């Protein structure tokens, strides 16, 4: 019998199910990078639920079922996922990725996302980026890179994304179906910001390539852009 599927948690239900002790995804053996990524991708949004059900061309059904039945559904149903379930997924990633350190070492989220989305499930890239008029680049997520800026003490995500795109001369070629953003960090010893305020909505108008925008002087359709 196929196990039940549970929708993502919303509003008061999310607070009720996810708040308190023994909630979230239990950490074990440097799993924090994967725990945080899985929680962000599935606890309160369905935008990537195709990863749980859709038979992609390269899809590994065993990994897909572990992700759906042992991690996402328990998280949405009870608000808690035990470390053993995540270890089960890590063991499968170790086997598929031919990298033994997936079960015990701390890794960058990009390694996890690229492995599970590209190599194991075969999902099409979520983002199309262009830098300085060069060739388009396909990717699954965007990591914020930027130099330390003294005027940003406690920034929000909107500010970080805009400044990062500006400094790298990046544009979104099209509106993404899902925009996964990794916050800036510099290893264990140094954190660029002590806190980052989540932007509940993200305005990508100025980040889109060739998107019609209003002139800030006359109000007509703009023909020039100044950085």
Automatic annotation (TrEMBL):
By its UniProt entry, which Gene3D superfamilies does this protein fall under? Cysteine proteinases
Q: Which GO molecular-function terms appear in the entry?
A: cysteine-type deubiquitinase activity
Q: Which UniProt keywords apply?
A: Cytoplasm, Hydrolase
Q: Which domain of life is it from?
A: Eukaryota
Q: Does the keyword Cytoplasm belong to this entry?
A: yes
| InterPro entries linked | Papain-like_cys_pep_sf, USP_CS
- Record flagged with keyword Transmembrane helix: no
User: What is this protein identified as?
Assistant: CYLD hydrolase
To which species is this protein native?
Chionis minor (Black-faced sheathbill)
